[in-house]
Amino acid sequence: MRQFDLAPLYRTAIGFDRLASMIDNANRNEQTQNGYPPYNIELISEHAYRITMAIAGFDKSEVSINTEQGMLTVTGNKKAEETERQYLHQGIAARGFERKFQLADHVRVTDASMENGLLHVDLVQEIPEAMKPRTITIN
Description:
- Residues 30-139 form the SHSP domain.
- Belongs to the small heat shock protein (HSP20) family.
- Keywords: Stress response.
- With 139 residues, the chain is α+β, with helices and mostly antiparallel strands.
- The chain folds into two domains: 1-32, no CATH class; 37-131, Sandwich (Immunoglobulin-like), CATH 2.60.40.790.
- It has helices at 7-12, 17-32; strands spanning 39-45, 48-54, 63-68, 71-76, 97-102, 107-115, 118-125.
- Strands 1-2-7-6 form a four-stranded antiparallel sheet, with no helix packed on it.
- The model has no long low-confidence stretch (mean pLDDT 83).
């Protein structure tokens, strides 16, 4: 993996340390996560997004979705089966997982649903009025 030297950014910009830490976290997460479960990130509209995760075999009660300090965490923990099964081939993963997504400022989760083994998490970016562009009239 490439290493980025962010020293020039620190010398000329004030307040971008959060950006640098996000790059470091993304690099660390990419190295530690194994790609399970697979997921898509869709742009629904200008300020709406959807994360779709393939979590076949999981029940709603075995999946939790949390947001804290700009981080969305989706966790799945399979319940122990009461009966012992003997598989000839096991291609459906039944292991637990934890997938984290860094959220931009003012992005919040609006809905979550499960359908046909797919978990859908809907997000929206709500820009406060104070941050929206405005026209200043000249007196």
